[in-house]
């Protein structure tokens, strides 16, 4: 599975109008890695320490919860 390229994320974030870093991260993964499946995105997030903290903060414990969060965006 892909690892989050935080340097590219920082560059992407500069040109994004959203204020929520987690929403920006999801958009970044969709754009940079061309992944839209919530299960695949969750697999990437859960393997990264910083992204895992973002998931924990929102009490997202599985891919289904992430999918529900994504539908609210």
Polypeptide structure, described:
Helix 1 packs across helix 2 (21-32) and helix 3 (38-46) packs across helix 5. Helix content is 67%, strand content 0%. It is mostly helical. The model has no long low-confidence stretch (mean pLDDT 96). The chain is built from five helices and no strands. The chain has helices at residues 6-14, 21-32, 38-46, 49-57, 63-72.
Biggest sheet statistics: none
Mean pLDDT: 96
Report the sheet-strand fraction: under 5%
Order of helices and strands: HHHHH
The low-confidence runs, each spanning 5 or more residues with pLDDT under 50, are: none
Distance between the termini: 24 Å
- Per DSSP, the total helix count is 5
Decide which structural class fits the backbone: mainly alpha
CA-based shape: globular
Helix content: 55-70%
Rg, Å, rounded:
11 Å
Number of strands: 0
Topology of this structure?
Blueprint: H1 6-14, H2 21-32, H3 38-46, H4 49-57, H5 63-72
Helix pairs in contact: 1-2, 3-5
Task: Tag the structure with descriptive keywords.
mainly alpha; 73 residues; 0% strand; 67% helix; globular
Task: Give a quick rundown of the structure.
By secondary structure, the protein is mainly alpha-helical.
């Amino acid at each position: 599975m892909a690892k989050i390229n935080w340097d590219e994320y920082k560059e992407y974030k500069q040109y994004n109008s959203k204020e929520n870093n987690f929403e920006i991260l999801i958009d970044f993964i969709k754009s940079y890695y061309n992944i839209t499946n919530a299960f695949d995105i969750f697999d990437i997030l859960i393997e990264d320490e910083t992204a895992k903290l973002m998931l924990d903060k929102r009490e997202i414990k599985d891919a289904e919860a992430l999918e529900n969060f994504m539908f609210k965006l």
